[in-house]
Amino acid sequence: MSELELSSDTTSEVPEDDRPAYWREQVSINQGGARIDFSDWPNFDGALRVQRLAGYRLGDFQNVQFESTEISYERTPAEVEADGDRSARLLIPRSGTVGIEQHGTRVLLRPGQMGVVDWGRRMVLSHGDHVRSWILNVPADILRLSPDGPPHLALDTHDPLLGSVVALTEQLDRHGDTMTAAQFLKISTHWTGLLAAALDERWAPENTKLAAISRDARLHIRRCSDDPRVTVETVAEDLGITRRQLERAMRLAGTTPHRYLLTARLERAVARLSDPRNQRRTIADIAYDSGFSALSVFNKACRDRYHASPGQLRQRSV
User: Fold this and answer.
1) Global confidence as pTM
2) Residue 146 to residues 60, 102, 139, 143, 159, Cα–Cα distance (Å)
3) Residue 130 DSSP code
């Protein structure tokens, strides 16, 4: 499994004239493209604390705690198209007020609330001075957001499920210096599962037994795909369902259990290939550590999806 990365960045150590470019670079690396408006850029001040797995790609699990002076971000369709990130973000203000605008709705989030933002659609996020907030990534295949459904921009954390999401986020933050990568991944899959369940309850047509199975199966596969012993049969067994139920449920997500398991392993293996810290590791070792039972299976999966061999993919990242 990839290592857990924990980093802190602040503009206080950057010359004032360089701060806008520095902050734009941090936002681009962590969140993708966005147009940024600094209200008073000569005096802008911001800080980030980022927690994620090594080999991060936009939309993967990530926990960011940020604070800054007044600023506004606009993510336009052009930015979405450029970076391809169609996941979601969960905003949990800790102090101050954060404004979110999406789908023709604008809300002001305060401590005690949270908001889910569709990162694959236009949005505006803005706030004044003295704001501190968490922004967490929700991978695209965990939530199915629709502009036709109820808005999720302002949610009350007094809800038991949503309150549990906050509690787990606090654990991620509190134990960031000592947490292992496996612990980070397990907690992340749990809080996203609770969030998905809470949103299902708000949108009754989505709250079906098969939808719940599909969600649980995807979270389980993400958590356990590095283990080569995990198969479609073991996933069904671990969830206490039949293989047929699992296959029917996964069709709701537009996939099959086998395809989803293969994709999870492939994406994680390719991310590891691209990680400079793994340059001395053999491709076979990376394939096996990502859950592939044979190097030939990994080679075929790479060529089928990326039209390139693992070696060629590694070379592209150099």
Assistant:
1) 0.72
2) 20, 12, 15, 10, 22
3) S
Q: Are residues 155 and 216 in the same domain?
A: no
User: Which parts of the chain have pLDDT scores under 50?
Assistant: 203-207
pLDDT computed for residue 103 by the predictor: 86
Backbone dihedral angles phi then psi of residue 207, each to the nearest 5 degrees: -90, 65
**Integer Cα distance of 192 and 136 in angstroms:** 10
pLDDT of residue 171: 94
User: Looking at residue 150, what is its pLDDT?
Assistant: 60
Give the span between the Cα atoms of 248 and 257, in whole angstroms.
Answer: 9
33, 118, 151 from 122: Cα distances, Å: 11, 8, 14
Strand order in the sheet with 62-68: 4-10, 46-53, 62-68, 131-138, 88-95, 113-118, 155-156
Residue 24 lies in a domain: yes
Within 10 Å of residue 193's Cβ, how many Cβ atoms? 20
Show the domain range for 158: 4-175
With beta carbons less than 8 A apart as the criterion, state whether 228 and 291 touch. Answer: yes
pLDDT of residue 293: 92
